[in-house]
Amino acid sequence: MTALPGLSTPQLASPALLRSVFRRHAAGVAVITAQSGGSPVGFTATSLTSVSAEPPMISFGVGARASSWPVISETEYVGVHILGEHQRELADTFARSGADRFGAPTGWREGPEGVPVLDDVLAWLVCRIVARVPAGDHRLILAEVVLGDPSGAGRPLLYHQGRFNGLRD
């Protein structure tokens, strides 16, 4: 491999390279929720993307080995929650393997289409899954927005350099 002038030596593609590069990319923090048979599941996601305005559509990634995947793989609807900077602990809880994500102190209620809706978020959506696309060790979920509420107050929570952070001016 040839070094480029003014740049350090490039690295070959690897999971470590991808993780290292994306630690430098600040991303908004969301929690995705779903429910099956009265059992809610959820996970923290930084891969949330607006895909289309007409129709309103979003996407996110979920690990094929994630504990939430069996429910996400079969459910029709998901909840998408945009977290505020006051919700670092909630983001940690939904990111931690084996955590009781819906136990105290997590506040939530059953929302439209049976989707768990988290309390005190900046905004939330209920979306109907329209596609599940295999993508390496993850699945890319495409979902059409059914309804939502953008009226929460506060500033967004961000993920950068492996940590949850508030937005600075």
What are the salient characteristics of this protein?
169 residues; mainly beta; Pnp Oxidase, Chain A; seven-stranded antiparallel β-sheet; three-stranded antiparallel β-sheet; 3 helices; 12% helix; Flavin_Rdtase-like_dom; oxidoreductase; oxidoreductase activity
Task: Give me a quick take on this structure.
With 169 residues, this protein is mainly beta.
What is the topological layout?
Layout: H1 15-23, E1 27-28, E2 30-36, E3 39-45, E4 49-53, E5 56-63, H2 69-72, E6 77-82, H3 88-95, E7 108-110, E8 116-118, E9 123-135, E10 138-149, E11 157-160, E12 163-166
Antiparallel strand pairs: 1-11, 2-3, 2-6, 4-5, 5-10, 6-9, 7-8, 9-10, 11-12
Tell me what the structure shows.
Helices cover 12% and strands 44% of the residues. The chain is mainly beta and 169 residues long. The protein has one domain: Electron Transport, Fmn-binding Protein, Chain A (Pnp Oxidase, Chain A, Roll). The chain is globular. It is an enzyme of class 1 (oxidoreductase). GO terms for molecular function: oxidoreductase activity. Its EC number is 1.5.1.-.
What is the tally of beta strands? 12
Mean pLDDT: 94
Query: How much beta, percentage-wise?
Result: 35-45%
**Unreliable segments (pLDDT under 50, ≥5 consecutive)?**
none
CATH classification, class level? Mainly Beta
Q: Please give the order of strands in the largest beta sheet.
A: 3-2-6-9-10-5-4
Number of helical runs? 3
Q: What sequence of helices (H) and strands (E) makes up the elements?
A: HEEEEEHEHEEEEEE
N→C terminal distance: 40 Å
Largest sheet: 7 strands, antiparallel
Radius of gyration: 17 Å
The fourth-level CATH homologous superfamily is Electron Transport, Fmn-binding Protein, Chain A
The 3D shape can be described as: globular
CATH structural fold name: Pnp Oxidase, Chain A
> Could you say which structural class the secondary elements and strand pairing correspond to?
mainly beta
| Proportion of residues in helical segments | 10-25%
How many distinct domains? 1
Oligomer: single chain
